Amino acid sequence: MRRQRWLARLCILLLMAAAAILVIFAGRQGIGLLVTTALAACAMLAGAYWFLAHHGPLRWLGFTLAVVAPAAVVLIALRRDLIWVGAVALAALLLSITAGRAAMGEARQGPMPDSTASRPSHPFLIMNPRSGGGKVARFGLRERAESLGADVAMLEGPRTVDVAALARKAVAEGADLLGVAGGDGTQALVAGIAAENGLPFLCISAGTRNHFAMDLGLDRDDPARCLDALTDGIELAVDLGRIGDRTFVNNASFGAYAEVVRSPAYRDDKRGTTLSMLPDLLSGHGGRHQLQAHVVVPEAVAGVGAASAEAVAGMGAPPPEAVAEIDGPQALLVSNNPYDTSDLAGLGRRARLDSGTLGVIAVKVDNAAQAVGLVRRGHGKGLTLASGTEVTVTSAAEQIPVGIDGETIMMPTPVLCTIAPKALRVVVPRTRPGVPPPQQEFSWSRLGRLAGFGSVA
Question: Which fold would CATH assign to domain 114-239+424-429?
């Protein structure tokens, strides 16, 4: 707490220093530069939105605005000999933000409970040599696994290899552990089979992004270290997301992202396909798949993702079950446990995988002003956050594209997402980098109390 108090005071001092530098060394021109910079930032964000959301002249007007706005600020500062003043004030501001974020401290949330894992006698691992740019060969994963007594199946040849059939055959032949060195989509598929059969699962971080491995605290730079779990491992009981007859370890995405990735042209030209399709998707003109989401929020999680547990406790008893309605989102993400949304930089990481709740992030931005507000406030009108145990996604279309851990398929509507609490036994190495604890959400009132302007709860 003492460290947090000094960081809070440093944050305020640096903020005051940034303002003082502008006033003392630039006077009215410094205040004008500050206002101009704020307006330019809004113009740049609005221009970026127009570029993404429109075709033709308006798109290129938006591109021009996004480029010219910051360039104009630099030009004005150069002409008025204020570059060094602005640079020093900006550095002080950035340091102030860093100190303020650090002063908030860690959220009151302990690590997932674990137990010592028994050593498997017949582990079966599936490895994709193409994943992660060839990590399986580069780190000698097959040789290392076989030296530890594992049977290894390599996904060589056509991309249509039936991974589920391989895993089920291994179970029938007596495998007592299933594992995957590959992408999150393959991880989810085999993890579901392991959970069905009550077997432990080993995640090897050989994919490109390795989001599941990251949230398990595994070493993503050296996937060979994941194999240590075969000889000296601990077991975690984690949740599994379910969508239709499939499982997901990370998330299921609906709307713009799923539509774009589903396009046959996406694989050959990701950037061009995205820019070509986004305007119609954001405006709703390509919206034969317009979405509605219904989130079931039981009493036990009625405030998760929107307020702290203490605040929820003080709200009085909510109804046994509530339903949050989300109408017409352009993008919808349903995750296996909520993502950290205390700030935009936290998106993409989950501190725990055993809360028994789905996270929901929905984005609906209809104009440039909402796009600016979404980024400026982080929780603007265009952003909806929720948590629950069941999410139903409906549409007028009979089928909609859904991205399940990065792999897009067509699914009949309505699409039901649920969560299976602690359904998956994951074995991880005893020694691993771990998961950084989440930070508390930034609050000016808490910052003031930490700095000495009130009591800290």
Answer: Rossmann fold (3.40.50)
